[in-house]
Amino acid sequence: MALIDFRRRPDASPSAQSALSNLLNDFSVEVMPRTAAKIDDFSTLLPAGTRVYIAHIDGTPIEDMVATAARLAHAGFNPMPHFPARLIPDAATLADWIARYQGEAGVHQALVLAGGVSAPTGAFDNSMQLLDSGEFDRAGFTRLHVAGHPEGNRDIDPDGSDRAVMDALRWKQDFKSRTDAAVALVTQFCFEPEPVIAWADRLGAEGIDMPIHIGVAGPAKLQTLIRFSVACGVGPSLRVLQRRARDVTRLVRPFEPLEMLRALAVHKSSNPDFAIDRVHFFPLGGITAATDWAQAHSKPQEPS
Prior knowledge:
Number of domains: 1
InterPro entries: FAD-linked_oxidoreductase-like (IPR029041)
Low-confidence stretches: 1-9
Shape: globular
Protein name: Methylenetetrahydrofolate reductase
Organism: Meridianimarinicoccus aquatilis
Largest sheet: 8 strands, parallel, barrel
GO molecular function: oxidoreductase activity
Number of strands: 8
Keywords: Oxidoreductase
Strand content: 15-25%
Distance between the termini: 36 Å
Helix content: 40-55%
């Protein structure tokens, strides 16, 4: 598998620029309550209606999550809070959280995932149990996103295979077929296009047709990205960062996702059935850096 050659500029032709602009339409971004609190006015950073995921980290009070969702909704954005299964003690708590989000922020969408802790605190261990509870259906949620792992997940498959990950995706595909909610996959951030393309094509061959919102890291220092990648279990594409780290002259410059996203955009333009549907930014180098970059590259190139 060929690695991206950072010595060469990526394809900057008008067609590649147009493809990238199309891929970046309706991008989303992730925040935490404590990082969102540092932003005075999101309207200066994001287009109206942008989907903003709200990460629910262990120890974050639900009151802070709901308040962040309400603030974003009232400002004209589309909040999508995380529902981490392993942090929810029981069905009553799940129903209470849903009611709070709906009552105070008008939320009708969620990212449903296992959560970033190794052991459950109560009745739920994984996203499938939350979905199977029926609480989202009873509350009339119109959109439910679930996690995708293009490079596998050692927490789910400790042996390095992807058997459990794929079994979970097949279950989620079946859930999609029997629910009225729009269901999509949102992935962990990656740094190399080839594994993503191969993974998306494999899902299609398996009959898994959920739209994919590919996760990428916004511009950030290389050391920051490597630290988060190791902590989050990013797989083979971490080598792209490690390769770049060998050149000390690059350590002081932010790493940007341009090469990867252009490659995916050009591939999609040549393969209209390619399942990558949207781009989701993890603002590891700061919300402003990520949103500025996304908006700058989502603009069509002016004709010369």
